[in-house]
Write a structure and sequence with these properties.
about 250 residues, alpha+beta, 11-stranded antiparallel beta sheet, two-stranded antiparallel sheet, 3 helices, globular
Length: about 250
């Protein structure tokens, strides 16, 4: 089963437990993406264990049969790291989106995001998916292929959030406006390079690692994209953003 098929199955499951559109926004399979998931195929069993030097030891597993796109093979992040930048700025064709990183709650996910940013993996890539259902409002980015099936050639260990508020719908929580989270296929440890930006409170299972928050300027960019609407591809409220969004550079500071 390919990556996009896995993401499609996840979206169906989400639709059953909430009013989300047919899909979930995390590419690799976060809250969306039946086509945009950075990690697909069989998800290798990877995990993280307590480390030293003030951080975790993170094991990034190779994704068999899902290599990084041509020219985008940037290797894997370091398994151990002491300090990390606190912010990444996505410079887009519509303006800058500043992301403050939460290295304490999702260190492995953050380390991967920083690694990919430093290697210019995200440079000149499009945000390929926008959802606008009542319970799912996110912009999904991070796939260099623009197809929703691209990834970095490795998977990221799960770091599921434990403090998000219940949504009132069984087995879902509220991912608040301004959240940045990792997409996945719905299988354990299947995150990759795709991530989603939440522009309005969304209801999802607590299985998408939260690794950052968006600044006010970035939210203004997202609002511009959201107000432009969706070009339907996977349903009335799920498809490409009508206002194209391109990440020109991703840089840590």
């Amino acid at each position: 089963m390919n990556r996009s098929a896995l993401i499609g199955l996840l979206f169906v499951a989400l639709t059953g437990c909430s009013t989300a559109t047919t899909g979930s926004p995390v590419g690799a399979d976060s809250p969306s993406s039946s086509d945009s998931d950075p990690t697909s195929g069989s998800a290798p069993a990877s995990g993280s264990a307590p480390g030293t030097s003030g951080g975790k030891s993170c094991r990034y597993a190779t994704a068999p049969g899902q290599p990084a796109p041509d020219g985008r093979d940037v290797g894997k992040p370091a398994e151990r790291a002491k300090d990390a930048p606190a912010k990444v700025t996505l410079t887009t064709n519509l303006g800058a989106i500043g992301i403050s990183l939460t290295t304490d709650t999702a260190p492995c996910t953050t380390r991967s995001f920083l690694h990919l940013s430093s290697k210019k993996f995200y440079d000149n890539t499009s945000c390929h998916r926008l959802t606008s259902a009542d319970s799912l409002k996110v912009l999904q980015c991070g796939d260099p292929t623009g197809s929703g099936a691209g990834g970095p050639g490795y998977t990221v260990p799960d770091e599921n959030p434990g403090t998000l508020k219940p949504s009132g719908v069984a087995e879902t929580v509220i991912y608040p406006r301004g959240t940045v989270a990792m997409a996945n296929t719905g299988r354990p440890n299947s995150g990759g390079s795709q991530f989603f930006l939440v522009y309005a409170d969304s209801k999802l299972p607590p299985t998408y690692a939260v690794f950052g928050t968006i600044d006010d300027a970035g939210l203004a960019v997202l609002d511009k994209v959201a107000n432009g609407g969706v070009t339907p591809q996977r349903g009335e409220n799920d498809g490409a953003p009508t206002v194209p969004v391109k990440i020109q550079t991703a840089a840590a500071s």
